Amino acid sequence: MFPCDFAWGAGTAAYQIEGGWQADGKGPSIWDTFCHEKKGRVFGDQNGDVSCNSYELWEKDLECIQQLGLTHYRLSLSWARLLPDGTTRHVNQKGVQYYNKVIDGLLACNVSPMVTLYHFDLPQALQDQGGWKSPGIATLFDSYAKFCFQTFGDRVKLWLTINEPYVCAKLGHEDGIHAPGLKEPGIAAYLAGHNMLRAHAMAWHSYNSTYRATQKGAVSLAINSDWLEPSRAEIMRSAIDAQSKKLGYNGSSRLPSFSKEEPAILGTADFFALNYYTSRKVEPGGGCGKALSMKTDRDAAEVLDPSWPICGVSWLAVVPYGLRKLLKYIKYTCNNPAVYITENGFSQVGPLQIEDVQRSEFYKDTVLEVAKAIQEDGVNVRGYFAWSLLDNFEWADGFSVRFGLFHVDFADANRRRRMYHSGREYAKLISEYKTLS
Ligand code: GBH
Question: What are the residue numbers of the active site?
């Protein structure tokens, strides 16, 4: 049913789990600043200063990974831990040692790492120079990426450059609810997103020309997508330009154009990395706003189907079948790529529920949908990564929203990890499907 080399994984991100925000020479990131600078941004004014303390308790995470029987583990590197001011002028050797320890630890247990270079945590020093809005960021990211390929690429074979450029651009630069907290609707997110794609493409080309022959890995970027049905054909540039005209914006197109002089962006994904959480019904309309914004440009309204249960956070309607539909859509619109589902999960809020039966059912249902996508629709799915290995710092929701397969006691100095029922269920699914493949 699943190919025998199918990747069974779980994921995390540096800022969400590591803590050690000032340990051993790490530089500050925009999330350190975002949480510390001002009250009212994050639930309970919490922050990731310590979080799961994976910087010190990494061995505990490895035990969790082994208990689940994972074949793969997705982690992200903290740019500012490796390069405190964001540039290769100064390398923090303690940071290099930390990630070497993690990667070697995984490999020693026969677990393959999938490494994300950027999961929302830009070095503050680079934000001070304009961050993702500044064109020069692409070259700086490329240098960081090359440094990582050079340092870890002998052992890491699956790379993701940037996690969810859309989310990072919109929440960080349009809505202001993620770091760097900018609220510049209709303009900054397009610029930031544009530069993220340029940065990704540069890094892919660097890998392709310098490292691929010897390291033999694959590089992509993680795209978050809901399943939207039915969708209405919409060409991004014409939609944005039409709204500019309607609202009397006379500058040049708010959606930057890619230059022919720069490395091509088309073709810079060796596989499709999909983060899928939820679905929406979509209806025309929503573009009648009076001000420039991505919502106005998009001119579509999202509606929840009342039959879809909401779990934990309000945005998460549980729709496992949407994943299968999306996989099929990707197969036909993207020329049948290899697909890794790099994130998928179910959250809990409120009182602790170690026997999380609903989430266990969710994983069972979802993995079945993936099986059907492979078997009945012929989608080339290569792996599935549950989000997340551990309860962690859930960005603006702080520690109030729990996505882990392991419960983490944030009141305990040792941040005790404890497997949820859903962790047991996922481990069971993995071992059963492994015997069938
Ligand atoms: C992922 O994004 C992130 O990659 C991961 O770090 C995170 O822990 C995980 O989701 C769970 O949230 O607050 O109503 O404006 C998934 C895409 C996009 C889903 C933003 C939630 C916020 C909606 N996310 N969205 S709202």
Answer: 164, 343
